Amino acid sequence: MLAGLAATLFAATLAAHVQAAEPKGTTSRAARQEAMRDIPFDRLDADARRKAAAVLNADSMFRRMPVETVACDPNLYLFLLRHPEVVVEIWQLMGVTDLKLARSGPESFKVADNAGTTGHVEFLYGDQNVHVLYVEGEYRGPLYPRAIKAHCVLAMHSRYARRADGSYAITSRLDTFVDVKNVGADLVAKTFQNVFGRTTDHNFIETAGFIGKLSETAEDNPGGVQRLAGKLTGVDPQVRDLFAQCAAETARRADERSAAARPQPAAADVQPAAAQGLRR
Prior knowledge:
This protein is an alpha+beta fold. It has helices spanning 2-9, 29-38, 46-56, 74-82, 84-94, 185-191, 193-220, 222-230, 237-261; strands at residues 61-64, 68-71, 100-105, 108-112, 117-126, 130-141, 144-162, 168-180.
């Protein structure tokens, strides 16, 4: 549940239209071992290493979300990845979620889904290529007679490839580890692991599709996105301003690519403006 919630918040990029046959994630041993090797423990501080190791060394559930590659502006991608409150606030304006996300510190958030799941999310590490997050939370509701508590580690890996037209293709991979703490609750979690997988895969793809569409809209209609930024009253004003600026820069880069791609007139066809229309 917590990984599904976190996967909803922290998105990779995907094309705006998701095909009916969605790709599937994996829980294979090989993928798990690769995911553990790829976490940059040498770049985590002592507290972050302790938190991550406690989850990875436990008998935790593991799932790798579908790996996706899509064209997206890298700066906008990173901004939304590091400011998930912007995405959640837009969803709230659209009326498509009851999810609540509030920044509780420079790199941490409080989250609740209005369906019994609450938690605390923090960035343990982040650079252009990898972000590691840690989640502590619990579920209280009719699905289980007592609170289910869990700790999660999520690792988002991103690779950037510049294409011939100057745009970028970004390949994103999200690995999730979930350690259910309650005695007996791990049996419940594993019983519903298939449902858990389908839910997290779907949430990840849907969120990614939204991010891809937002990037496209920023290129085509930056003014609209800037006006949208002004309506995000639940977001810190500085973050709103940065979002608007990021949309403008996304559009500027797209315009520069379009201008560079337009055919230029042959040199013989070009005359200095002052010389046009002169007669001897």
